[in-house]
Amino acid sequence: MPVPGPVLVVGAGPTGLVAALLLARHGVEVIVVERRDGVHPLPRAVHLDDESVRILQAAGVADGFTAVSRPAAGLRLLDARLRPFAEFRRSESGLHGWPESNLFDQPALEELLRDAVAAQPLVTLHEGVEVAGVEQRPDGLSVRLRTERGHGAVGHDGLAAPTEGRPRPETTISASAVLGCDGAHSTVRDLIGARMRDLGFTERWFVLDVASSEPLPTWGGVDQVCDPARAGTFLPLPGDRYRWEWRMHDGEDAADLAERIPELTARWTGAVDVDVLRAAEYTFAARLADRWRDGRVFLLGDAAHLTPPFIGQGLGAGLRDAHNLAWKLVDALARPASAEALLESYRLERAPHAEAVIRGAVRVGRAMTGGPGAVAALRRPLVAGALRIPGVRARASRVLTTRFPAGESVDRRRHRRDLVGAHCPQVRIGDRRLDDVLGPGWALVTDGPVPDGLRARAERVGAGTVRVGELGGWLAAGRAGAALLRPDRIVAATAPRPG
């Protein structure tokens, strides 16, 4: 018997809103609650890779995202005098069919996602509401919501509305699952007794966001200043926006550096006056939750992991969580008898990958910005030389590549080149992208005949068969004639290539 009630998403940031949209596209009713009102007005996340944009595509907002973002040319490493000594170029069409590096303002993304949620009848968003408690029962979850300002509409979702100006302080609703997308200070994480494990990196950085009436000189990508005296980052955002980040010294505070903004930015701005939008201290941390799930309660995004920003994967990791969990939750709700192993695979797949990305970001950050003067002086020529070796460049990028081990929805590899556990590339089929052709569910892709066993397996999960000649080279490289794709486009199974 399916578990009653909608899915409750706690937190209306990008991770929570994308999770809601993905679930709704599978026909699941969703309630989103957010303790604050409106979109947070200040920029926070500024980078997404091509896999993340592919997830936005699955949520129905990728084309809108391209209107509020700009592709980045890549990453340059600069010395203390702003002279480039190494460069990572990024393609405008990566494995996932989108630019490999994209810069944006988070408020613009959140506005886009909120508009999509408002247009989705299966999703209801309530502001001024926070979670006060969760009780797990055999027939579902009972969730206490605190509605301090009386937001919420009486109706199918059961949330309280103000009566003659007097809000009800608490409401209890039934839910089939709870997704904790409520950030680094997660209430949901506290409710399930999870704790953050420190992975050994904490640094204070000064983050400055500005608008400039005149364009500032930029090569179109991100600059990382590898200066042991003051490591920094410069990012040209869409429109008239720019961001700098500088590592803070012991004893400094944000007020100290705010007084020095003209001095800190002079080498980029020259005589151009800029309008400061935000000047604040941020602590870059590397942490991972010791548990990601308690029954039907899950942690996603910053509630489950925190990463330093050096490889631009903070928000992208949360979107990966949403993409991985949404389809599994849909399948589990439809087939509760076999749900446990599938839901547990969310943690088994995402936690190791998130930890690998975090540790990769820590290594990159230390290599680019850490170390005393003597070490830093040696680092520049060593890094520059190493990055000229193609194999070293490939290994530096490999941490971001998804390759899940065998598990509940990934077969064991039949040979070293087998495609299972990895993403299917998103190719163009005429004027359409592959995922738009396949739709939101399971899919069987082939460039030839399909063996009966794999075809029967595809039918059991409701996968349609799509013949895609454009994937012929990819299938041949994996010695496969057909591949069964999960809804998140990870290869679950393959069939050997005929002959």
From TrEMBL:
Q: Which GO terms describe its biological process?
A: 3-(3-hydroxy)phenylpropionate catabolic process
Q: Does the keyword Oxidoreductase feature in the UniProt annotation?
A: yes
The Gene Ontology terms for molecular function here are:
3-(3-hydroxyphenyl)propionate hydroxylase activity; FAD binding
- A matching Pfam family: FAD_binding_3
Keyword list (alphabetical) reads: Oxidoreductase
NCBIfam families listed in its UniProt record: PRK06183.1-3
Name this protein carries in UniProt: 3-(3-hydroxy-phenyl)propionate hydroxylase
Which organism is this protein's natural source?
Pseudonocardia sediminis
